[in-house]
Amino acid sequence: MEQVDKQQGRDASALTVDDPWHDAAASGLDGGAGAGRPRGGRLDTVPGQRVQGAAEIYLEVQRSPAFQEVRRRYRRFVFPAALAFLLWYLAYVVAAIATPGLMARPVTGVVNVAMVAGLGQFLSTFLLTWAYARHARLRRDRAALDLRWDTQEMTRGVAQP
What we know:
66% of the residues lie in helices and 3% in strands. Strands 1-2 form a two-stranded antiparallel ribbon. A hairpin with a 2-residue loop joins strand 1 and strand 2. Helix 2 packs across helix 5 and helix 3 packs antiparallel against helix 5. The longest helix is centred in the last third of the chain and has 47 residues.
């Protein structure tokens, strides 16, 4: 590969770049007469109707009662759980700053209240993760999967020429 300086006056578009990650066959660029263009010879190979049709389908699914129910179930769990966890964490931080005497009080041996509360943070993280996974499995996954299959079936006709 030849290295060319700008001072030599060569046009940047005439310079070829040897890119080891570029696959001409996969990108639709062939080295023949149509170099620089997709194989069809046109730059606009995707008709506007396909994209618009798919967008309309996704908007229709988003407005559907089934989708709204999945979102409602998600929000009814996530917002209260996130708020409770945030308040629990802030209470731990505020207690550590505002009442160092309480946090330093020994529980047993060298283990004090701050250590127990800190371990409680880890425990509550694991419990919240378990509760979220259980809630998703029992209340949302089946409905979301049904929506996914329905959406794929609706967009299948749009994707075909």
